[in-house]
Design goal:
Layout lengths: L4 H20 L1 H11 L7 E2 L2 E6 L4 H22 L8 E4 L3 H7 L9 E4 L2 E4 L11 H17 L9 H11 L10 H9 L31 H23 L1 H12 L4 H9 L3 H14 L2
Parallel strand pairs: 2-3, 3-5
Antiparallel strand pairs: 1-2, 4-5
């Protein structure tokens, strides 16, 4: 049935409003593109239907499937409870397809989680294939954590979620920066600043002073891995100091609580105060 003139005007106005909203809010636009390019539509492995893959990535998808049971068990043990629902893993071979599906439009990030999907980049089929298991385990930490949180709950700061994932995966996504490197940087005045900013732009991650990168260093990945590793050291220190309190924090956050009040309720101080105590303990251990 043809649309009336008035209805056409309404539809046109709604379409224009949607286009304007997407232009103003790039995250909304990226989320819509990611939803349209949902990797769950990719073929699955016969031996493990949780693993989806592009045809050229089949060998790495099979490697991911082989590693998946141990990675799932590792994350459940580290987080203290089972997954809320079975994770979906997607392995990509094409940079453009990966950038569309990951919701960031960026093919250089080696792994991304979104809406219960752990997405692995084409780099893990190529020159960074050695990182497959650690990055898979890191992304499963995000899938697990956000799988329990109610939709629309306030998002915790990225330093916490990334530090938790690095800790739970034994260094995944921060492989080239060791615990000793991160501790030394903090002692030397190059500690990361715990704020609420998004760390998707790794060059803008805040440090007390820019950690020296050295000749031939890739500054973007170095800053990311240094920040992630320092955050993991801090979270590990918190957990060792009072495992029961840290468990209370995890359950509160998984239930949808806002980060700052949940953190203080569980650990009796704000993150910045505990970071100063952590940094002081590192200085004493020099």
């Amino acid at each position: 049935m043809p649309l009336s003139g008035a209805l056409k005007l309404v539809v046109s106005a709604l379409a224009a409003a949607l286009v304007a909203a997407l232009a103003i809010q790039p995250e909304l636009r990226a989320a819509l593109i990611a939803q349209i390019n949902d990797p769950a539509a990719l073929p699955t492995l016969p031996e493990d239907a949780r693993v989806h893959f592009e045809a050229q990535a089949r060998a790495r998808a099979e490697a991911a499937a082989a590693a998946l049971p141990a990675a799932v068990a590792k994350i459940e043990a580290e987080h203290g409870r089972p997954f809320a629902r079975p994770p979906v893993v997607a392995v990509f071979a094409d940079d453009a397809a990966y950038a569309r599906a990951n919701g960031l439009g960026d093919a250089d990030i080696v792994g991304v989680s979104r809406a219960g999907r752990a997405m692995l980049s084409p780099a893990l089929c190529q020159n960074e294939s050695w990182r497959l298991v650690s990055v898979l385990t890191h992304e499963l930490s995000h899938v697990h954590f956000f799988g329990w949180r109610p939709r629309g709950a306030p998002r915790p700061p990225q330093w916490f979620t990334e530090g938790l994932a690095v800790l739970a995966s034994d260094g995944g996504a921060a492989e080239s920066v060791s615990d000793a490197d991160a501790a030394r940087a903090i002692r030397d005045g190059y500690g990361v600043i715990l704020d609420a900013s998004r760390w998707t732009n790794f060059l803008s991650i805040p440090f007390a002073a820019a950690p020296p990168c050295g000749a031939g260093c890739d500054l973007r990945s170095f800053r990311q891995r240094m920040a992630y590793r320092q955050a993991a050291l801090f979270i590990g220190w918190l957990r060792r100091g009072d495992p029961a309190a840290f468990s209370r924090l995890m359950r509160a956050l998984e239930g949808g609580s806002a980060f700052e009040p949940a953190f203080e309720a569980a650990l009796n101080d704000p993150p910045q105060a505990l970071w100063r105590r952590f940094a002081t303990a590192l200085q004493a251990s020099r």
